[in-house]
Amino acid sequence: MSESTAAAPLMIGVSLKMYFGHARTLEWAAAVADLARTHPAVRSGAVELFVVPTFPALVPVHALLADTPVLLGAQDLAWADEGAFTGEVSGRELAEIGVDLVEIAHAERRSLFHETDEDITGKVHAAFRNHLRPLICVGEETRSSSADAVAEVTAQLDRFLATATADGIAGRVLVAYEPVWAIGAPAPAPVEHILEVLAGIEHHLAARPALAGSVAVYGGSAGPGLLTRGRGRIGGLFLGRFAHDPEAIRTILDEAEALQQSGARA
């Protein structure tokens, strides 16, 4: 991990997917907001939190987070900004209601809804032109060597960014490395594999000036202890069902604070 990346705050985020109803989502968001107001890892800037609820919850969750540094994410966006696209939500509207970042290219979108590289490339372009930070998910479908995984996921990233890069609007991205074979698994990928692939992604990002300030984090059954096992070399975590309990998020924040205190993230 480069010095500039090591000095950056840890990015810790949670996608709720479609697990919660509306009332439970708001209750959860209020608890996360309280946690962000009081936890030293967030207050010091050592951790930057983001939450990704469902579309109907975005406006009220934005209100709940108003006096906190927590970033608000959306789970998807349309590649078009307006028009006759029934059921879609535009990046223009997401920006208008206060969304900060938008998740794109998750493996479930590709497998369940058959999103193509062309679809994803259009969505990344839409995010950039509406001043939303793309949260781009990448990952190999089958387990392979770390070198092969780096080659595969960086090629995915290049394809997804191609149009925005060609048009000169690409900028800071948040890359979530989520090996498909580890999503929903009982345990994350081996730590050394995670470290080597994240380092490969970070090196790839650092070589592209247009993407300055970009960060890579790990998803795929991430949980407590992973930051510690990563010895300060994991730039953040994208959490799933583990974080449905706000106290579980506190556990991760405590771990991040301990890493900072130990000097592992200095």
Brief descriptors of the model:
alpha/beta, TIM Barrel, disordered N terminus, 266 residues
The mean pLDDT is 93
Overall shape: it is globular
Roughly how many Å is the radius of gyration? 17 Å
Number of strands: 8
Under CATH, the topology can be stated as TIM Barrel
In CATH terms, the superfamily is Aldolase class I
Estimate nothing, just give the exact number of structural domains.
1
Number of helical elements: 11
CATH class: Alpha Beta
Are there runs of 5+ residues with pLDDT below 50, and where?
1-6
> What structural category arises from helix and sheet content?
alpha/beta
Q: How far apart are the termini?
A: 12 Å
Q: Order of strands in the sheet with the most strands?
A: 7-6-5-4-3-2-1-8
Using the 3D structure, state the CATH architecture: Alpha-Beta Barrel
Strand content: 5-15%
Order of helices and strands: HEHHEHEHEHHEHEHEHEH
Please describe the biggest sheet, giving its number of strands, its sense, and whether it closes into a barrel: 8 strands, parallel
Helical proportion?
A: 40-55%
GO molecular function: isomerase activity
Subcellular location: Cytoplasm
Enzyme class: isomerase
EC number: 5.3.1.1
